[in-house]
Design brief:
mainly alpha
């Protein structure tokens, strides 16, 4: 009887260790994918700010960068996040929504005759998306962004200071 109990305990320990290894592997895979996204995002921002506004191809260059950035952000927002990164993932999802709006308005602003109001909306939405990406980075590093509090469910909620940005 003692041998059976001992064998069961050993099996339970071995199987529980496998679950921990799977979780660690899932967390590492998520970290690698999100870190790659953040690296590409830095490249996009560098390319975006290097565009010469007086160039004849400036509007096409802006749209190309915005389209690539939006596609990459949408992909990052669709990743399955481990529980430890759910708040970072929520911020990426919100950033993705805002970047999709920015992309639509950038296209409206630059395709055909230039539309200043569409550009202003697009730039505002682009800035807001980047703000949420910043929140995601902060959560990704295990910190809580200023203006956020964790609820009893460990989900982040904006305080009045950040709500509606």
């Amino acid at each position: 009887m003692k041998r059976v109990v001992l064998a069961l305990m050993i099996c339970m320990l071995l199987f529980s260790g496998c679950g921990a290894a799977d979780k660690t592997a899932q967390m590492e895979e998520y970290r690698v994918k999100v870190s790659g996204f953040y690296d590409r995002l830095e490249e996009y921002n560098n390319t975006f700010t290097a565009i010469d506004p007086s160039s004849e191809t400036a509007s096409q260059e802006v749209l190309q960068v915005i389209d690539e950035m939006t596609r990459d952000l949408n992909d990052a927002a669709q990743l399955e996040a481990p529980d430890e990164f759910v708040n970072a993932q929520d911020m990426l999802k919100e950033a993705s929504k805002r970047m999709n709006d920015a992309q639509k308005d950038f296209h409206e602003a630059f395709e055909g005759e230039y539309q200043q109001q569409a550009f202003e909306r697009a730039y505002s939405e682009y800035s807001s998306a980047n703000e949420y990406i910043g929140y995601a980075v902060t959560f990704f590093h295990g910190e809580i962004p200023e203006g956020f509090v964790l609820t009893g469910t460990d989900e982040a909620e904006e305080t009045d200071e950040t709500a509606g940005d």
